[in-house]
């Protein structure tokens, strides 16, 4: 297994309440391993929230906050 504790960058983990369980489990594991992580769970969205008729503006808003607001 890769040692994610060596990652020096701030990391944003995004998931949705409607995402498949295996993705939620992966985010849980990464959140425990990464030293500088922010996790957001987006209510009512799934893994493809940025595609087609999803909610790309919700994801874009979280990305904008992550990249513009200091920790």
Descriptive account of the structure:
- There is one protein chain.
- With 71 residues, the chain is of the alpha+beta class.
- It has helices at residues 21-33, 56-68, and strands at 11-16, 37-42.
- A two-stranded parallel ribbon has the order 1-2.
- The longest helix is centred in the middle third of the chain and has 13 residues, at 21-33.
- The termini are far apart.
How are the elements arranged and paired?
Layout: E1 11-16, H1 21-33, E2 37-42, H2 56-68
Parallel strand pairs: 1-2
Rounded radius of gyration (Å): 13 Å
Number of strands: 2
Number of helices: 2
Helix content: 25-40%
Unreliable residue stretches: none
Order of helical and strand elements: EHEH
In terms of quaternary structure, the protein is single chain
Q: Quick one: biggest sheet? A: 2 strands, parallel
Overall spatial form:
flat
- Give the strand line-up of the largest sheet: 1-2
Through-space gap between termini: 28 Å
Brief overview:
The chain has 2 helices and 2 strands. It is of the alpha+beta class. It has a two-stranded parallel ribbon.
What structural keywords apply?
two-stranded parallel sheet; 2 helices; alpha+beta; 17% strand; 71 residues
């Amino acid at each position: 297994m890769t040692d994610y504790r060596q990652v020096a960058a701030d990391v944003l983990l995004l998931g949705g309440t409607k995402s498949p369980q295996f993705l939620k489990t992966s985010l849980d594991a990464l959140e425990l391993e990464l030293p500088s992580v922010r996790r957001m769970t987006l209510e009512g969205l799934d893994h493809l929230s940025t595609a087609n008729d999803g909610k790309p503006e919700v994801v874009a808003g979280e990305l904008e906050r992550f990249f513009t607001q200091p920790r």
